[in-house]
TrEMBL record:
It comes from the Eukaryota. It comes from Scophthalmus maximus. The gene is dnajc16. The chain crosses the membrane at residues 529-549. This is DnaJ homolog subfamily C member 16. Pfam families: DnaJ, Thioredoxin. Keywords: Membrane, Transmembrane, Transmembrane helix. Residues 555-567 have a biased composition (Basic and acidic residues).
């Protein structure tokens, strides 16, 4: 029996796949998308799309009342979804599968038999009963061009609420009731509604940054903001309120009502006050304020506050219904009023449109120029009376007189405005000459063409008013009196914010968007920005590291080693410094005076030397130019400084210095003359080590006259000093002869061998003459 039981159990297990297959067949019979659409297997995508559009229109449940229309429409949509996708179509052609995750087909020919499963979507079929998908979404469907051309420009007047959805999105079905309720409410308030189907508008979905369904986002001022909270009516309503800019509506009480109403001349706008019982500003009023923010200033008065009682009594406000007042130039009396218990958007829009402008506003931008409408053939002509004034005092006598004239002579066909000549100079140059005047004009087209006539100079007198009345009466009878025509330039935007302020606002918005993306893990959108940031940091870090290693290697080359104690003690700059290429394209040479004496010599840093050229006023320009050429190749050294000493001013300092250096005095050879002859030091160069208190001396070599003579640089070493001294004594007459003929030589030849001398200076082979101390400041200061 035990074997029989096992065999029976085995047979039951074998029949289980057949049972599941029969259940799958009963649940959903095999679907052939080619037969449903009526196309062949070789049909192109264009043919399939054309047939699908025709069948979808024919079997749409809203148009076809057949009981099986809904099921047929589902099959048509599913068939098109399979055949329009190359992967799904190839999968069906190869295996006969339609979709592994949907009840159609079940995976009969698939390689896995465990793909048959049940989930809640199987029992909650999206198109059955009351939970069926709302086909009314079709009227809100957005396309890419429609979004770019219509929605984005319109988002500067009203916010948009957009839902991202797709076919067979079961999560989308769950939010449908809330979405439908919110749409009905928001649409009546003036919020724009849109629906984007990812399956058909993938380009628009990518443009919006929506990569999953369902998603809800808001668009305002062209900026996209995603909704990240639970889909509930209250949350979506708050989301729309948060989209609107701050301070659209100002809270008005008895304390700030005068300040609010009297700002009409600064803002150049009428002011609207809404009186209501609720403490929170109604969303309808906020949306209205956003739509008309360029034309009107909005305030809200909470009638439930004790701080608003006086304001309610002043304007006799009814506390049982919301009341809206419009104030223009007269802040004591409203220009218009509306009161109703249930204010509708249409009524409010009409009320605002009729009160968009002051009685006589100032033209501050091109948008405000619509006050003067363009002539249309099927409508009555309308004229603009324009005051051009140089007086920028709003309450001046002339402006007040013009405002008074506008209030007493208001007509449907007349509009009044004024401009400041200095702020709208291009327009005023066309319409007037040199003084304040009133011009009547008629705009002929939107391109700027207008007919006009200057009427009278204006100072606000009764004669000016009467002259203007007469011209307006003539104009009603004969429009041809507007004899001048011109193309008016576009008005300057006087209220445009500075570039820096706009840049700050744009940066703030961008940072806020980045922070929002980070907080809600929208990493796909953040990847380009993060890649840019990390690339910039990598480049910056790499540059800094390379520069640091480069500087450290240069420091190691210039830093004297402790082993080379001999040269370091002698104060030689080192040969490495001479091999350093120059860092500048010029030689910086400073004058050695009483001001620079301490820093350039006395307190010169250890290891540094100052190369000083001795010159006169007459030879200054020539010697400095030659000096710069000779020492330019050594300017790369960080231990060398270059200066010049004017011997005409500081000859005493030079004599005192060489008097300290006895060896140097022996070189000068002044003993032969008994010190009576004044030595000419022009062209001498001193290498001064301020810390070690020694100098090296270069004396000019006159290559133009005696090429065979040796320089008195003392080319020998210290041990040979005695022989050199005797040699100089032997050639003393010859040297004196050369001194007498110095004036015949060109001055610039004096420094011909300075470059070779600098080479030996850098090598440390020149003799050094030590001094006990540097001459004092009294020696360097020129005599007065």
């Amino acid at each position: 029996n035990e074997g029989g039981e096992k065999g029976g159990l085995f047979r039951e297990i074998l029949t289980l796949p057949k049972l599941l297959s029969s259940l799958a067949a009963d649940a959903g019979p095999e679907m052939d998308p080619y037969k449903i659409l009526g196309v062949t297997r070789s049909a192109s995508q264009a043919e399939i799309k054309k047939v699908y559009k025709r069948l979808a229109k024919e079997w749409h449940p809203d148009k076809n009342k057949d009981p099986g229309a809904e099921d047929m429409f589902i099959k048509i949509t599913k068939s098109y979804e399979i055949l329009s996708s190359e992967d799904k179509r190839a999968n069906y052609d190869r295996y006969g599968q339609t979709d592994d995750t949907q009840p159609y087909g079940g995976g009969r020919y698939g390689p896995r038999h465990d793909s048959f499963h049940f989930d809640e979507s199987f029992f909650n079929f999206p198109f059955n009963g009351k939970n069926h998908r709302d086909f009314a979404d079709s009227k809100y469907t957005l396309h890419f061009n429609q979004y770019v051309n219509d929605v984005v420009p319109d988002s500067y007047k009203r916010p948009y609420l957009i839902k991202i959805t797709s076919d067979w999105c079961f999560s989308c079905i769950h939010i449908e009731p809330v979405w439908k309720e919110v749409v009905q409410e928001m649409e009546t308030l003036g919020v724009g509604i849109g629906v984007v189907d990812v399956g058909y508008e993938r380009r628009l979905a990518n443009h919006l940054g929506a990569h999953r369904t369902p998603s809800i986002l808001g668009v305002i001022n062209g900026k996209v903001t995603f909704f990240h909270y639970a889909v509930a009516k209250e949350h979506l309503r708050q989301f729309v309120e948060d989209l609107l800019p701050q301070r659209l509506v100002e809270r008005v009480t008895d304390k700030n009502d005068l300040q609010f109403l009297n700002s009409w001349h600064d803002l150049n706008k009428p002011h609207v006050l809404l009186f209501d019982q609720v403490s929170v500003v109604p969303l309808l009023y906020q949306l209205t304020a956003f739509a008309y923010k360029d034309y009107l200033q909005f305030g809200y008065v909470d009638q439930g506050l004790s701080e608003t009682v006086a304001l309610q009594k002043q304007f006799n406000i009814n506390t049982y219904a919301p009341t809206m007042l419009v104030f223009k130039e007269n802040t004591d009396k409203p220009a218009d009023i509306i009161q109703a218990k249930g204010m509708k958007k249409q009524i409010i829009d009409e009320f605002m449109s009729n009160n968009k402008f002051l009685l006589a506003p100032r033209l501050v931008n091109q948008k405000l120029f619509e006050l003067c409408p363009v002539k249309q053939f099927h409508r009555r002509r309308k004229y603009c009376v324009l005051l051009i004034t140089r007086d920028e005092e709003t309450l001046s006598f002339g402006n007040q007189a013009f405002l008074s004239f506008a209030s007493t002579n208001s007509k449907e066909v007349l509009r009044y405005a004024y401009v400041y000549q200095q702020l709208q100079q291009p327009l005023c140059d066309i319409l007037m000459q040199n003084k304040d005047s009133v011009v009547i004009l008629e705009r002929r087209n939107a391109a700027g063409k207008a007919l006009f006539k200057p009427v009278t100079a204006w100072n606000g007198s009764e004669e000016d008013k009467q002259c203007l009345v007469d011209e307006l009466e003539r104009l009603q009878k004969d429009p041809s009196i507007l004899v001048h025509d011109a193309v008016l330039p576009e008005l300057n935007n006087e209220f445009a914010s500075m570039f820096v302020i706009r840049w700050i606002y744009a940066s703030y918005d961008y940072l806020a968007e980045v922070i929002d993306d980070i907080l809600h893990n929208n990493w796909r959108e953040m990847m380009p920005l993060l890649s840019l940031i990390f690339s910039a940091l990598f480049i910056l870090f790499g540059t800094v590291v390379i520069q640091a290693f480069s500087d450290s290697s240069e420091d190691k080359q210039t830093k004297p080693k402790a082993k080379d104690g001999t040269k370091a003690e002698n104060g030689s700059p080192g040969t490495a410094a001479s091999s350093r290429p120059p860092k500048k394209s010029f030689v910086e040479v400073t004058e050695l005076t009483d001001i620079t004496y301490i820093s350039n010599l006395v307190k010169l840093r250890p290891g540094h030397m100052n190369i000083v050229l001795v010159l006169t006023d007459a030879s200054k320009n020539i010697l400095l130019s030659k000096f710069a050429k000779e020492v330019y190749s050594f300017t790369g050294s960080l231990t060398l400084h270059f200066s010049f000493l004017n011997i005409d001013k500081h000859g005493e300092w030079m004599n005192t210095l060489l008097g300290y250096a006895h060896d140097a005095m022996q070189i000068d050879g002044d003993e032969g003359d008994g010190g009576s002859r004044k030595m000419d030091y022009t062209g001498h160069v001193l290498a001064l080590n301020g810390h070690k208190k020694y100098l090296c001396l270069f004396k000019p070599v006159y290559t133009g006259e005696d090429l065979d003579s040796k320089s008195s640089e003392d080319e020998g070493v210290t041990s040979g000093g005695r022989s050199r001294s005797s040699s100089r004594d032997d050639h003393l007459p010859r040297k004196s002869k050369r001194s007498r003929s110095m004036s015949t030589l060109q001055i610039h030849h004096k420094l011909d061998r300075l470059g070779l001398w600098m080479e030996r200076l850098m090598e440390g082979t020149l003799p050094r003459y030590y001094v006990p101390a540097w001459p004092g400041l009294d020696k360097i200061t020129p005599c007065k």
